[in-house]
């Protein structure tokens, strides 16, 4: 018995439209979650290295709490757990305006923010402490030293692990199908349900993820080369 | 005249380690003081107290008339009046030489960019490398990096300059270019505290040499007296070790 491929299911009927919608939702979900994750990651990663103990403790709590609970649990938490805590009016508004999307976005962003935090912290800690001392010794405040010196150096050093984490975030956005966000994986399953063509639908989904990941990796490595610190270029390797 | 820097009965501990023991000393305006002593004797800690990179546990430090150990002291003001040069240069690698020098005037003093740039170029000229303005630290030699670091510290027009072994990380052939800049600075009347093992520099430039051991100031004297007839056993030992090579 041999399987007859029927690739046309991908563009006949509603399939093409569904795939496109799924792709757009995945991109929106991931992009917003990424911005949230990077902001939280930079904030908490930097706070974990500042000379103020209470701030360090707060950041450590965030990181350990959020990265040690499975993403799926966070999805359920933000979707089923949080809305009932909100005022009635806000709840109604949310469920009229894609509550599952926002819940998924928060879950992804906060979870990956905790993971990026670790990357950013290790980047900061790889910078000799004397760079910080030189910054404050010339009159910069701690905030200025981080904003103008420490973070600009650290962020340039950690592009490769941040790329890695960004790809994880994109792939993990598929977990949002569990709270009915109509993202790419959700839509490929819908195509499969309607056409009974599992392999074709999954292949299409897989290829789209692959293209997205390769594009992101390419953008990040151009950024890395564009902003490389002279003298540290050697580390990037033959590409540069 | 009031002292530029004054230590009164200063004590500092790192945990259980007593690193500054009852240090009392003054530095007059325009005076150049060389601090020497064996490794671990507390030289770096001593000068790092002057710009409050280290906090002390007892005693008082007065810099340019302000007690910097009082809770009301203004840290930014202190640090703009006291420049510091480190052993490891510590230029910011993602900025050019010029940008390194312009950073503090622009961000701390809110100086307009054109003014900051003009000052920075004049300082690069003063330290002898006007043509290196656009170079990143990685493309400067050690001696050039240290001269940029000195220019960067001078950009805030400090009244006091601290140097922590500014030539120890340099190849021998680059030491002199940095010492020359420091000598010019001393001649211009800058108040300086310099931790260094360059005894030639101490002899020629310093007004006073301070010898430390075990967190204590063991001996202070003008360079001639100090090198010709050190009073304590420990300073004699120290001198014989470092002058023998
Ligand atoms: N941040 C710190 N925490 C704990 N101990 C420290 C710290 N900094 C310095 N020490 C210790 O304090 C003592 C004095 O150190 P300091 O750096 O002032 O010595 P130094 O005279 O500058 O020595 P060197 O010639 O090696 O630079 C040393 O025993 C050192 O190990
Ligand atoms: Mg030292």
Please describe what this structure looks like.
- The complex is a heterodimer of chains A (240) and B (245).
- Chain A is globular and about 75 Å long.
- Chain A has ten helices and no strands.
- Chain A is 73% helix and 0% strand.
- With 240 residues, chain A is mostly helical.
- Chain A has one domain: MetI-like (MetI-like fold, Orthogonal Bundle).
- In chain A, helix 1 (15-47) packs antiparallel against helix 9, helix 6 runs antiparallel to helix 7 and helix 8 runs antiparallel to helix 10 (198-226).
- Residues 234-240 of chain A have low confidence and may be disordered.
- With 245 residues, chain B is α/β, with parallel strands linked by helices.
- In chain B, 38% of the residues lie in helices and 24% in strands.
- Chain B has helices at 43-50, 75-81, 97-108, 113-126, 142-154, 172-187, 199-205, 223-228, 233-243; strands spanning 5-14, 17-27, 32-36, 58-63, 66-67, 82-85, 160-164, 191-195, 208-213, 216-221.
- In chain B, the strands form two sheets. In chain B, strands 6-7-8-3-9-10 form a six-stranded mixed sheet, sandwiched between helices.
- In chain B, a hairpin with a 2-residue loop joins strand 4 (58-63) and strand 5.
- In chain B, helix 3 (97-108) crosses helix 4 (113-126), helix 3 (97-108) runs parallel beside helix 5 (142-154) and helix 4 crosses helix 5.
- Chain B starts with a strand and ends with a helix.
- Chains A and B meet through helix 6 and helix 7 of A and helix 2, strand 6, helix 3 and helix 5 of B.
